[in-house]
Amino acid sequence: MFNFFGELKNNVKELNKLENFNIINISNKIIYAEGHKGLVTLSKDVIAFKIKGGRIVIEGSDMFLMELTENTIKISGNIKKVESF
Amino acid sequence: MFGKSIFKIKGLNIEKSLNILSKKFAIYDTERIEKNLTQFSVDFRYHKNVKKELTKLGYEIVEEKNSGFLPFIFKNLCNFGVIFAILLAFILYTIQSPIILQYEILGTESLNKEEIVLFIEDNFSQNKNKLDILEVENALYKNFEKISFVSVMVKGQTLVINIKERLMPDEMYGEFQPIYSQHDGKITEISIVSGTAEVSIGDYVNEGDILVQPYYLDSSGNLQKVEADAEIKMEVYHTAEITHFDTRVEVVRTGEFKVIDEIQLFGLTIYKNGEDVNYSRSETRVEYEDLVKNNLLPFKLKRTTIYELEEVVINEEFEEVSEKIITEAREKALENCENYDTIVDEFYTLKHISSATVVDYVIVEEIIQEN
Q1: Of A64, A67, A70, which has the smallest distance from its Cβ to B31's Cβ?
Q2: Quick check: A38 and B19 CB within 8 A?
Q3: Residue A37 domain-assigned (yes or no)
Q4: Residue B40: its chain A contacts at CB < 8 A?
Q5: B211 assigned to some structural domain
Q6: Would the CB atoms of A64 and B30 count as touching at under 8 Å?
Q7: Which of A40, A69, A70 has its CB closest to that of B15?
Q8: Does residue B97 belong to any structural domain of this protein?
Q9: How many CA within 13 A on the CB side of residue B187?
């Protein structure tokens, strides 16, 4: 199966050393993240989740969790800002 | 996903609980409606486990909704009406499945399919488990002379009967009926195709006489049945007779007549115009006419015309009207003739008896006798 992150890492050698998390933003409407370590905040305006060694905070409006599994998270809504701490 | 369960739960610190749940089940469409009210959905297959976990975590389940194929099946399997219907259908199917519902008969040309079906229905069980196929085949072969080969098989609830009919020479088909004369007349030509001729050229025959017998005698003198077939031509005589009396009494209209009109409703006269007359001899003609064209009040006009008649003595020699009388006789004879193109001859004879003359007109038609 085609894996976008796998292909990207194969092309950029330095990326092979980075195994923490992956995030993809699709048109500020959907955020898909791999390697999260747990949900921290859930509201329509802010969704935050932990990653290895930090935290990702997403701000926007009408947001909700499309999918939440042990390792992946899919957020939908009007995304305004994605910050990593 | 064959179905999903949507939970609406009440409680705080939902993030922590979602993290616990997501380690065991995938969670979809999670939305925080209010601070302490959250909605999410899971695969229907895990809805019981999720419920258990939520209870364990101390959440109040405000609402649980199931949708999709699996919940539909589970819901209906718990419905007694549906269970009863399924059971009933199963029982009915089990009862009727061994019964032969229809017959498919292949390969018949002259054999009557209904006759075969009736024979099987009368003599064999309709239960396919009790039906001996070999027995059916043998019975059909023995009871229907025209069958030369038959195979029977059960296909679902249909009994398929494959028949091959016996091949016989063309002349052996049929009912072996003789050829009867359809007219009175004289045989002018006869050519036998099969059978035995009972008449020969020049013979006079009456309607209903046998012309050809449906058999022949073979070289050993044995009688062999065949379909009677022959080409027969015969002269048929159409006759008409008119008697002319030199002195005769004829009844003719005097010219006097009376018309009586009546209006009727359902056969009852409701108005009458004119009075009855008392002619010593009369002829009456009645005509009906609808006055209105509806069925509500079907008024009818009954018009009765009464003609006065009188007897007149006519003295007329045959010679004076001979042509007219002969033409009348000819026309009368032609009434029985079906095809004028086949007329081969015509003649008349005159017979004088005291004061009368009899005209006998004969039309000779040559026809081909039908087999």
Answers
A1: A64
A2: yes
A3: yes
A4: 65
A5: yes
A6: yes
A7: A40
A8: no
A9: 23
- CB contact under 8 Å between B28 and A67, yes or no, is yes
- Report the CATH number that the domain containing residue A33 is assigned in CATH: 2.60.40.2000
Whether the CB-CB separation of B230 and B171 falls below 8 Å is answered with no
Sort out which chain B residues have CB atoms less than 8 A from A43's CB and list them.
32
Instruction: Evaluate whether B5 touches B61 at the Cβ level (below 8 Å).
Output: no
What's chain B's average pLDDT? Answer: 86
Tell me, yes or no, if the pTM score tops 0.95.
no
Range of the domain at B261: 250-311
Query: Structurally, how many domains does chain A consist of?
Result: 1
Question: Residue B153 is encoded by which pair of tokens?
Answer: 């098989």
CA distance A40 to chain B (A): 6
User: Does the distance separating the beta carbons of B29 and A66 come in below 8 Å?
Assistant: yes
- The shortest CB-CB distance from B30 to any of A40, A68, A70 is to A68
Residue B95 domain-assigned (yes or no): no
pLDDT digits (tens, 9 = 90+) for A20-73: 888 999 999 999 999 899 999 999 999 999 998 889 999 999 999 999 999 899
- From B212, B211, B210, B205, select the one nearest B184 (Cα to Cα): B205
pLDDT tens, position by position, B212-255: 988 888 888 888 888 888 889 998 888 899 998 888 888 999 99
- What is the residue range of A55's domain? 20-84
Tokens 């001859």: give the residue: B345
List pLDDT tens digits, range B130-183. 888 889 899 988 888 888 888 998 888 888 999 888 776 655 555 678 888 888
Of the residues A70, A72, A73, the best mutation for testing chain B's interface (the one with the most B CB atoms within 10 Å of its CB) is A70
Q: Is A54 helix (H, G, I), strand (E, B) or coil?
A: strand
What domain count does chain B have?
Answer: 5
Please list every residue in chain B whose beta carbon sits closer than 8 Å to the beta carbon of residue A44.
Answer: 31-32
Does B10 share its domain with B71? yes
Q: At what angle do helices B80-96 and B69-77 cross, to 10 degrees?
A: 80
In a domain, A11, yes or no: no
Strands B158-165 and B102-106: parallel
**Minimal CA separation from B72 to chain A, in Å:** 24
Among B165, B194, B219, the domain-final residue is B165
In a domain, A26, yes or no: yes
Is residue B301 included in any domain, yes or no?
A: yes
- N-term to C-term CA, chain A: 32
Of A38, A40, A43, the CB nearest to B32: A43
Q: How far apart are CA A51 and CA A72, in angstroms?
A: 11
Residue to substitute from B17, B24, B31, B36, interface A, most A β-carbons within 10 A? B31
Q: Of B166, B201, B206, give the one whose Cα is nearest residue B187.
A: B201
